[in-house]
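F.,

This is the one I mentioned.
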């Protein structure tokens, strides 16, 4: 009888060890691999007053406030074709009431914001409000159709921080 009790205890301990090793293995197997994380879409870059900012230095995120499916993605393609860097695309928050286009920013005089706004045409609203994406946040509405030629670059009036693509 004593031998049966020892065997039962031994099997119980081994079962607990097996469960613990299994949990540890599952955690290790589902962890992301080190060094394999996605690079950031943009990094903060300082621009001095008088520096020129070009589309290649600017990251744009586009959000759809219209009833038209895919408008944010199509607009992002237009920005990429114009040389801007891709940020985020998604639907705008439900409370976003934008007819044509708007730029949401806490820094409306920054050169990246002014450069992006110049491509949205004269009806663009630049709204002092925190952006919701990386880089310059653009909201497009039902009446948005396309980008306009706009400025090829923008001179920074003051020192600023812009969201530029990381240097690889």
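My design for it:
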């Amino acid at each position: 009888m004593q031998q049966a009790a020892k065997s039962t205890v031994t099997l119980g301990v081994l079962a607990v060890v097996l469960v613990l090793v299994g949990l540890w293995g599952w955690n290790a197997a589902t962890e992301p691999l080190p060094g394999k994380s996605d690079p950031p879409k943009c990094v903060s870059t300082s621009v001095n007053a008088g520096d020129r900012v070009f589309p290649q230095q600017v990251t744009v995120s586009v959000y759809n406030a219209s009833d038209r499916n895919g408008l944010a993605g199509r607009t992002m393609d237009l920005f990429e074709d114009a040389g801007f860097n891709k940020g985020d695309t998604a639907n705008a928050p439900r409370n976003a009431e934008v007819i044509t286009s708007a730029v949401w920013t806490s820094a409306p005089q920054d050169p990246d914001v002014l450069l992006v706004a110049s491509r949205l045409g004269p009806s663009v609203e630049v709204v002092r409000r925190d952006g919701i994406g990386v880089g310059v946040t653009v909201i497009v509405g039902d009446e948005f159709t396309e980008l306009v030629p706009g400025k090829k670059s923008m001179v920074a009036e003051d020192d600023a921080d812009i969201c530029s693509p990381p240097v690889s």
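The first strand starts at residue 43 and ends at 47.

Talk soon.
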